[in-house]
Specification:
The chain is mainly β. The protein is built from 2 helices and 5 strands; from the N terminus they run H-E-E-E-E-H-E. A hairpin with an 8-residue loop joins strand 1 and strand 2.
Length: about 140
Amino acid sequence: MFRHIYNGADSLRKQKAFCFLFSDQMPRLASGFWHWMIIDLPSSCTSLAQGVGHSDLELDGSAFHLRGDHGDHSYFGAAPPAGDRAHRYIFSVHALNVPTLQCDDEVSLAMYSFLAIDHSIARATLTATFSTPLN
């Protein structure tokens, strides 16, 4: 996933780190629901292996998870309520022009996103929809 944005633009030669976000832009909440965020991924990172959402120990370098809206510092998968209309899930990766924003693991995902936007030099997104049918 990272390889595509890293090799695709000359401006990314200045990139120092990545952050990875996963959110649900569900209609019930104005702010959506943050499922997962990894920050301070080194610029050498070209992929995320299966299982990295469980522990910071699985991440490269000084990268770590922020607490999602589910209350934990880990991956929380798509799980819309049965019968709810399809939810829109957005996966995004930002290339940053600094190696870190000097945040700790207690910063909110919204605040980190706010701080990162001024340092984001490229972004790639993947949007998917998912729903759980009524039984």
